[in-house]
């Protein structure tokens, strides 16, 4: 089970025009916004990646606005976030061993990041309703490839209630309002 003290969220490359042409872009952005607002409720840090932002553009404004309240993007040039020194250092410094993984594209940057994280012995939970690709079949195949490598599949509501543990308290009420 996920433990908030062991968990970190990694958001991969939700940027520029590419983010707008994903097969389920509205759902993707909605789920990522929920996650960006929910992580502070659990004191879960977020690492946020951008692939070549000077060429591909920056993170979608509605997501960036939420994330900038408590974190800054990490620019990368490799498909896998693990290959970026700054990302690797920040992830290792967090001491967190359970990685929630979200973003685009499922079968490329999310997949390669997942593989490297698994190779490092981290427990990876891919948020299936918060990853996407331009073509639905690539999203599905990317999820299958990550699961075959040893990643866990989850989804936004499942993971938030898993972290919450109980149906009471102020945080529970805040989660319910985010999930409406």
TrEMBL record:
Pfam families for the chain = Isochorismatase
> What sequence ranges are listed for the domain Isochorismatase-like?
7-157
The record's listing under InterPro entries reads: Isochorismatase-like_dom, Isochorismatase-like_sf, Isochorismatase_domain
* Name used for this protein in its record: Isochorismatase family protein
